[in-house]
Specification:
about 120 residues; mainly beta; 7-stranded mixed beta sheet; 4-stranded antiparallel beta sheet
Length: about 120
């Protein structure tokens, strides 16, 4: 059974930074992506990382501000968020699967989400 647990959310002022963590427990190393959902909006794909970090993908709205990395020895994937804006406010989810098309992934396994609030 695959379990994902996010942590690291919180409240920050615009221009600040947060680092989210996603611990992925399972039998293999998984492809992982980050998503977010703001109130009243559809879920948005933020970006993803392949199993061995050989490829990363970011949506345009976070390029240059967010960085995805992973430490497979700790079964953890990170989302470093810098220069945060109020429009980044959302619940952030990590998701995983054994394979995924990083530019347009479909993941079977999801975490419970962590709230990020950015105030102006």
């Amino acid at each position: 059974q695959v379990q994902l647990v996010e942590s690291g959310g919180g409240s920050v002022q615009a221009g600040g930074s947060l680092r989210l963590s996603c611990v992925v427990s399972g039998r293999i190393v998984y492809e992982v992506g980050w998503f977010r959902q703001a109130p009243g909006k559809e879920r948005e794909y933020v970006g993803g990382i392949t199993r061995l970090s050989s490829k990363k993908y970011y949506v345009d709205s976070v390029k240059g501000r967010f960085t995805i990395s992973r430490d497979n020895a700790r079964n953890t994937v990170y989302l470093q968020m810098n220069s945060l804006k109020p429009e980044d406010t959302a619940i952030y989810y990590c998701a995983a699967d054994s394979t995924a098309v990083i530019e347009n992934p479909e993941y079977r396994y999801w975490g419970q989400g962590t709230q990020v609030t950015v105030s102006s």
